[in-house]
Amino acid sequence: MRRGPLQAGEKVQFTDRRNKKITDQLVPGGSTQTEHGLILHDDVIGSTEGVVVTTVTAKCEAQINQLHPERDASKPWKAARAIGGWQYAVMRPRLADYVLSMPRGAQIMYPKDIAQVIQLGDIRTGHRVLESGAGSGAMSLNLLDAVGEGGRLTTIEMRPDFARVAEANATVYYGRRPEWWDLRTGDFDSVAAELPEHHYDRIMLDMLDPWNRLEQAYRVIAPGGVLVAYITTTTQMSRMVEALRESGVWTEPAVQETLERSWKAQGLAVRPDHQMIGHTGFLVVSRAMAEGFTALKKRERATKDTVTDVDELTAEEREAQLEDLELRDISDRKLRKVLRDLDRMVDALES
């Protein structure tokens, strides 16, 4: 964690009175373009967090198309961007702010999902964590923070270019490459085969087919270790859950999603915002059994038959199918009561 005066090379966040945020890296002699002029970095370097800086007037020519100025003749906002005198508060970005603003190659996980991974995965200081799928480094950064320098994060990324993006984002965030991060490239099974058995306390999988990686995941995780898989679609989630159950070495999986809604609170106008972050993905959480022990299971299980047309079944087969699906048919007694209530309502209308 950085403290003290803001230094060149650091990322800072500029926030105006309308709560519009701009994140940029401080460079000696550099500037940040805003809608209301330029923020000069030399005015920020050496100051503390919480100061307010004022934009200066930019050259209008910088806003106008040099080759075809006529194209911008009817765009007064072009010149308006050059006007200074707008104030911005200066802060170091939170990790969530940094993740949302950092350069990315692959789609990142939202902070709401990352927070649940850390909490439900019980990822704490000193843990040894295995991660598959670095992407742009959003999850990796949070895992690095969670385990701390006393822990160890091993990340397996299939694509070398994505690994470079994640590594660069982590380096800029920490000001150096984290020494407690082992970033490897290759497919999960091949790289995991080289890792020691039962070495990792936690495993985080963010990939298209995590159900195909459970064998190696079980080999390298310690008994009682927590496995968390981030999956975006219902079909993927279903396959992952069934694969965990069929393996017999993982506890009954828990599945959840998180929805995020912000609120407006201004005077008497206290209401939820019109927009919210809805479904982004599912988290599937399970724990590893000790070798030689089988996971305990519920007796009732949903049917696996997803193709048979219920209309083609006999009455007995249909009843059994409904029971497997845990659907309750209405009883004759209940149906008679419903009809009596409806008859009474119809009679009331006629009278």
TrEMBL record:
It catalyses: adenosine(58) in tRNA + S-adenosyl-L-methionine = N(1)-methyladenosine(58) in tRNA + S-adenosyl-L-homocysteine + H(+). Signal peptide: none annotated. Its EC number is 2.1.1.220. The keyword S-adenosyl-L-methionine applies. InterPro entries: SAM-dependent_MTases_sf, TRM61_C, tRNA_MeTrfase_Gcd14. It comes from the Bacteria. It holds the Pfam family GCD14. Residues 97-266 form the tRNA (adenine(58)-N(1))-methyltransferase catalytic subunit TRM61 C-terminal domain. Keywords: Methyltransferase, S-adenosyl-L-methionine, Transferase, tRNA processing. Catalyzes the S-adenosyl-L-methionine-dependent formation of N(1)-methyladenine at position 58 (m1A58) in tRNA. Homotetramer composed of a dimer of dimers. Belongs to the class I-like SAM-binding methyltransferase superfamily. TRM61 family. This is tRNA (adenine(58)-N(1))-methyltransferase TrmI. It comes from Bifidobacterium santillanense.
